[in-house]
UniProtKB/TrEMBL annotation:
<dbReference type="InterPro" id="IPR006059">
    <property type="entry name" value="SBP"/>
</dbReference>
<keyword id="KW-0762">Sugar transport</keyword>
<keyword id="KW-0813">Transport</keyword>
<dbReference type="Pfam" id="PF01547">
    <property type="entry name" value="SBP_bac_1"/>
</dbReference>
<dbReference type="InterPro" id="IPR050490">
    <property type="entry name" value="Bact_solute-bd_prot1"/>
</dbReference>
<protein>
    <submittedName>
        <fullName>Multiple sugar transport system substrate-binding protein</fullName>
    </submittedName>
</protein>
Amino acid sequence: MAVAVATAAALGLAGCGSDSGSGSGGDGENVSLELLVPIYGDKTKPYWEQLVKDFEAENSNIDVKLETQSWDDIYNVMTTKMQNNKPPDILELDAAGPAYATDGALYKAEEIVSPETYEDIEPAFIDSAKIDGQAYGVPTVASTRALFYNKTLFEQAGITAPPKTWDELLDASKKISALGGGVYGYGMPLGSEEAQAETSIWAYGNGASWEKDGKMTIDTPEAKEALTFMKKMIDEGATQPNPGATDRTPLLDVFIQGKIGMIEGLPPIVGQINEKAPDLDWAIAPSPTKDGEPVTLGVADYFVGFNKDEDKQESIAKFLDFFYQQDNYVKFNDNEGFIPATKSGAEAAAAKPELKTFLESLPDAKFYPATNPAWGQTSGAFKSDVGQIETKSVDEVLKSIQAKADVEG
């Protein structure tokens, strides 16, 4: 998942078995599968090495060649592989993975896992990366955003419950900011790291959508209302100073230090808080929306299977079904700090109270239109322009982002 929680790690290449031919693997013939996955953290590569070893022990005719790459490198690695017409058989990536279907290179999602596995996956995550109504990716890790809040600051400011609406958020944030001492009510990161995420949380909370009929829809009444309220939060001192120059990762550190009352965050933040500030009194609530109706930003990474000349579909499905076995899959998500995208995995994760809000928000998650070729430049426009709402009109900012989104590559 190409977000701040993805750590830059040294790349590695571990060959598990030799290249012993191709085929479906259904009749015992030898098959070699190439697997390319990104590194989320220190536990990623050891997990995959063990999983491959366990899988090969049960499927002696299938050799899996594992390649791990950092998030910084994996896109360039895939570009080179595609240019050389040598894609892996199985790739894990964000929505850029399913986007390879536009070249006709992928199996359909229902062809790379069994019907039982496919049925177990939360539909919202399958739907999130469809292209022309067809799914090509099956989600590996999933995440939604939720509101982290400092219970100590809430008590000091006389706030009895987390806000559900924008108006309640503004009121609570101003009360916390009024405490002084370098404390601010709401952390609003509109810097270049991930401004598209913060903006999407607000816009989706007002019914906005960034795409319609294949076109980017940025300059809309719903988005204007959302950005206008964001600007109001800034103007009335409810946020930290200069949100347009503030990135998410350092601002989360400020929250962990106890100086921010509320901030949107991902499940891995739970582990960071427990490690860096075990005495912090905090909790998690659903993301506030204009009217309090539940909706949140969802993100996911996906497995895709490349349909090359060799028929490896059955072997790919065997391996991915093995990955999605509950014990294997839950361990993967536990290692990386995300939430499972399967119904059975979510049931297992429900035993962890800190994940309750994230799990409950899964059905209401709304995603970036990341399979649209124009999303990359649109996301970049958010990162460069949306922070200017502090000094420019909302109309001017939205028109600028829309213009950049409309530029044909």
